[in-house]
Amino acid sequence: MPRPFLVCLSLLTTAVVAQAPSAWASLAVPGGIAGGAVASQGKLVVHRGPTELQVFSAVTRRFVALPVASGAPSWLHNDCLLVQDGPTWHAFSAWTGSFAAVTTSALAVLRNLPNARNDSLLLVGDGGALHAFSAFTGTWHTRAVGATASVSVLRHTALLADGNTCTGLDAFTGTWTDLPTPVTAANLDADGTAGFAIDNGIVHAFSAPHRTWRSATLPAGATFVRGDDHGLWFTPTRSLGYSAIRGEFNRKGPGATGLRALQDTFVLLDTPSGVAAYSAVTGDFSERLALPGANHVAGAAVALLEDTAGTHGYSALLRRPVTVTNAGPNRGAAGVVAWVHDQGSGRPLFFSAFTGDFHAAPPNVLGGDPLLATTSAVAMTPTGCVAFAPRRGHFVPLSGAPLQIVAGQSSAPVLAIAPLLLHAFDARTDRWVSVPRSGAGPVQVQAWRTAAVAIDGSTAFTFGAQSGQWSSLPLPGPTFDLACNSECVRVTTTTALHAGSALPGAVWLAQFPEFRRLQSARADMPFVLAMPTGSFGLAAIGDPAPAPWLVPALGDAWLTPSSAMLLWLGASSGPSLRSSLPAPGVALLGRELGLQAVCLPTTGFPWLSELAIARVF
User: What's the CA gap between 225 and 443, in Å, rounded?
Assistant: First the structure.
């Protein structure tokens, strides 16, 4: 039975079927858009006018204006924008949808690397003060520093060495966490969610999700490699691994002679006995996966290795390799999916990082290589195509011919363009999502990371892999420019800039497998709801349902009613409202938690957000 609160809410709103705000927002520019005035990155779209800057957030789905002097320098990142206007530094957070300012002296400088466009932490040094802006909190966090202090910052982690004190800063809370051990001349290395301070043969590792430090003795003469969430040191006799996802070291690694592959969640090593792996997700080293000299292909969390014994599938999310002996020579891997051909049938075998197993394609799949995306794959059939959904190892057919398939190994969206419909595959719920086309000619399509945009006739469509929804916008004129970024899109017409969000209206900070950030079972689970200022928010969290059920006047609910937990979140003081669940614990390892929100605005009718899903690791 549905939850009583939702039933009562439905009874109060049966007069009008509520509509969530559009994923699109348009900015009118009556004089036309000048060349170079528009930029976009990650979740943000920016228009720079002579005296004003306008920025769109994919989280809050609105433009916000900031008066700025002509020529004021700015830096655009995935989750934040920084503008220096004289002594005032204005930082915009995509998550809060607002600017925050800090005033400095004329000597202040940005300490982030010049080409680091994915950072959610911004550091501004000003003599004896270090000002840090967190995109996730939307606030500045200031710390006094000495004249010889050194810093390292990249993505969601910053390290500060000041005298004998070393400190880690995480973007998720904006908290400085001191290393309890004094250091003398630490070499700092921050990236992703992991930071390393190496001092006199000791490595001190900082985990941003856990806000903890751990220390270990380095193997003498070790080679160091690292990814977003892990670090690895190896010698011919032993290896040492650190996982920021788990916040711990593993000292039991085998000796290694070289690096075979470096991915977001794991490392493949050449050892004297063959190829082995270290996983930042499980925090451990594998047994031998393949014989020395094995060929391999790898994605973010998956690898296939071929030797004389067969083709071995490895999942960085699980601990056991799986072998098939009838695989052909062609293979591919991306994200959480890999494939090889079955030599007997000629059809592909798909390997899933989630199931840790191979799955044979249906008998009607045609020969040829499948198309890979980071979270699914597509193979053609005589009547259309079939999508492979790796979360559960399902195959989902789509009828209709001819079909133009759009998929890329660096992006999650998979689109199928038919004469009358636009289809997108939602790999979270194992279904094709379709909308009627508005044109009859060629469709302009772009996809990147979790977002896709299509221009069909006089309509712009966007699809988000994290929301599983299409959203459309009638265009007032011809398209002069379009771009697709990680979680937003932009379309430029003669006198307007149109920005679209690929995110759900309630969103977890964790993104995997659609994007990089993983949710640790031992770390809090933050989430953000987009809603007008002063609105009241209610979050429903539970197991994703196999199919939606209708909440009258609100729309489709995607949570299993018996599992749903309701959280009353109160009123928002801005265009978004942030909350968090306590660490889910190891009992929920491998579970997916769905999130939907009900917004009760001060005017108008309540609405139900799209489904967001986070998997616990």
Answer: 43
